Give the backbone structure.
Amino acid sequence: MKIEGSLFLSFAVMLTICRVEVAATGLLPPESSPLIRHYYKVHNTCANVEPFVRQQVKALYDKDKTITPKLIKLLYADCMVNGCDASILLDGDNTEKKSPKNRGLAAFAVIDIVKKVIEARCPGAVSCADILNIVVRDAIFFSGGPSYPVFLGRRDGLQSDAAWVDLPSPSISWETALAYFTKKGLNMQDMVTLLGGHMMGRTRCSNILDRLYNVSNTGKPDPTMEATTLSYLQKQCPKKVKLGQSNPLINLNPDNPTHKFTNSYYSRVLGNKSLLGVDQQLLYGGSDAYDLTDEYAKGIEDFRGEFAYSISRMGGLKVLTGNKGEIRLNCHVVNKP
Ligand SMILES: *[C@@H]1O[C@H](CO)[C@@H](O)[C@H](O)[C@H]1NC(C)=O
Ligand SMILES: *[C@@H]1O[C@H](CO)[C@@H](O)[C@H](O)[C@H]1NC(C)=O
């Protein structure tokens, strides 16, 4: 518990430092500025939303430890595409949820359960976008990750379109990935840090088959992959996945089968043991990316603080506030006029 206190402090200090830099360097996305801590307490619309959510997430996490990586992915899929407006939660024929790029998304039920409880306690008060951000914060905490303040006051978007989904593929090059993050308002450090989300969770074999058998159409495995990792993964993911055969799910971080918060993702990058091409490229992203990877591999405390910070920055991308958007009553559908 002592550790949490000091982490919280270091994050608060870090935020203060960065606030000072904001004006000069534009470090925080400008859209995050309207968000505040304890928004629902300040506005007296749902003072206890955070304890309510935490209680629900605790119960759900106790039943299923994989909710954390799923929720982080959900937040990423929401915030990177048209901002953190819960548009990923909307149902419909041509919604973001229906994009083939979002096929693997899960944990929607977590949001539904929490939203139902919050609606019973504080009807029409708390946005789905804020609930998603609080739930992610709490799930990270229960997985052994940092405890950090969550900034609130987002409203929910009114539209969702599969065509907006521009999420990059897992075998993207470093340059393209960085250009993508930069376009969204994040920077190199955020990217290196947020890729650390691959410390836990699962992926489909189809995402790494090219690296295992035919990298860049050479007909050979990726020569940069460490040998025992390669043979281990080739066993997990056979070359020929016949039609109708399942596309196996494998742990993104084989060192972390229980999906805890860890920095071993970064040691694996340094050891050429990453699964996804985009992860392994941290080694080749230039000296700053390398130094950060090395720093995180050596010190989990640094990683904890920076992960909290970059998740918060991502959670502040292009948010709707004031009279924009709405507070959705049901996260699956926009309110009736
Ligand atoms: C590798 O991929 C390319 C392009 O998809 C394909 O033409 C080629 O036959 C593959 N090579 C092997 C050995 O599977
Ligand atoms: C990782 O691969 C690079 C070449 O791609 C090599 O220079 C480096 O020594 C390897 N590191 C380890 C720990 O094997």
Residues 174-309 form a domain with the Peroxidase; domain 2 fold (CATH 1.10.420.10).
